[in-house]
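Structural prep section.
Before we set up the soaks we want a predicted structure of the protein with magnesium ion in place, mainly to decide which crystallisation condition to try first. Input record follows.
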Amino acid sequence: MRKIKKLEMRGISKSFQGNPANRDINLTVNSGEILGLLGENGAGKTTLMNILYGLYQPDSGQILINDEEVRLTSPLDSIHHGIGMVHQHFMLVQNHSVLENIALGYEKTPFFFPKIRIRDKVVEFARRFNFAMDPTMKIWQLSAGEQQRVEIIKALLNGADLLILDEPTSVLTPQEIEDLFHILKDMKAQGHMVIIITHKLDEIMDICDRVTVIQKGTVVGSADTATMDKRSLARMMIGREVLFNAEREQLPKGDTVLKVDGITVKGDKGTPVVKNMSFEVYENEIFGVAGVAGNGQRELGEAITGIRAIETGRVEVKGVDTTNMSPRRIYDAGLSHIPEERIRFGIAPGLFLYDNSILKQHHLKKFSKKLFLEYSQIRDHAKSLVESYRVSTHSIDVQTKNLSGGNIQKLILGREISEKPPLLVASHPTYGLDVGATEYLREELLTRRREGGAILLFSEDLEEVMKLCDRIAVMFEGEFVGVLDSGDPRLADIGLMMAGSLRL
Ligand SMILES: Nc1ncnc2c1ncn2[C@@H]1O[C@H](COP(=O)(O)OP(=O)(O)OP(=O)(O)O)[C@@H](O)[C@H]1O
Ligand SMILES: [Mg+2]
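Run finished without errors. Recording the tokens verbatim:
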């Protein structure tokens, strides 16, 4: 196996059931270079990279490594040629240790390959790229960022010269993103090449040398990032200006919709991670919970929406005690939920798009008549969701798992918001959305607010929180260290509050 100095995709086309996902795509990466791949949800980015990783075969086109054509008919082929990939959704075995997962994915592992040798290698790689890694930890004990590092080590151990990362930052905290970028810059300095898919224009500007933009399966441009800025990138991608500012007008304070009264919630490890917390969210309000991931935000959201037990205290939705009710009954009380782990909790991947368009709503009158589901109504509903949320799909008769990552998100968002729930709990609603869809979603949240809805928004994106929220709570170690009105000058110190070094 020779080191990859240059990799080229030439004239790559790929269709699914006659629908083109990639059309005549040309793309080049050189060693020591980080290439950004940018494009709207459904543009064909993941498909193209899956072809490079040997998961899909192109219908036509060539792949050349160091100017010689290669055929990549399986991931093993790609790994042999020095190509590694970290997927949009990780593929680790949750109840195995780091070491076991790496051994499983190690292509040179003979049956009895000594784990000790792999452990030594993991330690060596961790040192070389400056990160901490305990090989005996189980995957489920790791944060998203740590799991991702396991995937990266797996790829590097297999000798990857080219590392493909599909939306690596959407599940990471700002600190973890910084750590990841350090690793990538080290890799680059050591002559590796990286292709990174991301919707975050700042990241492209920050880390990529070049960017290639795909629109509806076709390359519409490539450029050195040094010659571009955020706006020109956005224009290249969606062919119009993107307004990076949503308008939020003042609205009078409405009635209480959500009342959280002294709740305590335990985390996966059995210790309290939400501690005696109380707050209310009103009509016409977006209440934001900011904070570094891992400070109890996820558990708080899960407790309110009924997927995690509340140990003490009480939650009310529109005056109804919903403490420890089932998610379905909490839904009936008026709460819709955009969960953090959307692929796990938000959809049934094997079902058709139209089925997923009414998940949890099957019992609503308009969709069921006596015992039977009204399929024509459901199909109409699915069609209107697809249209208004611009879910890019060729039909509603596709299995949901075949939608692109961002389009699955849009479907869930549309489903939860379109019912106009009195209370919407949204965790990181713009994760995985392209800039156009992000803009649209933010508008939808503001519309919901204007119509009298109450929204509890969990987000790590400070820009998003500042733009959308009427009040902002900062969560640290299971408590709010401050709750501020959006105009409060003390928000200048939000970073300190998030780090726990300032308490108001
Ligand atoms: N296995 C499959 N079967 C059928 N259609 C597919 C399959 N995989 C992808 N597609 C379709 O190909 C198109 C491109 O999807 P792809 O996942 O490559 O988009 P993407 O650019 O990665 O989008 P996102 O930013 O949302 O992740 C979409 O219309 C998608 O529905
Ligand atoms: Mg994708």
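Observations: The chain has a mean pLDDT of 86.
Flagged for discussion at group meeting.
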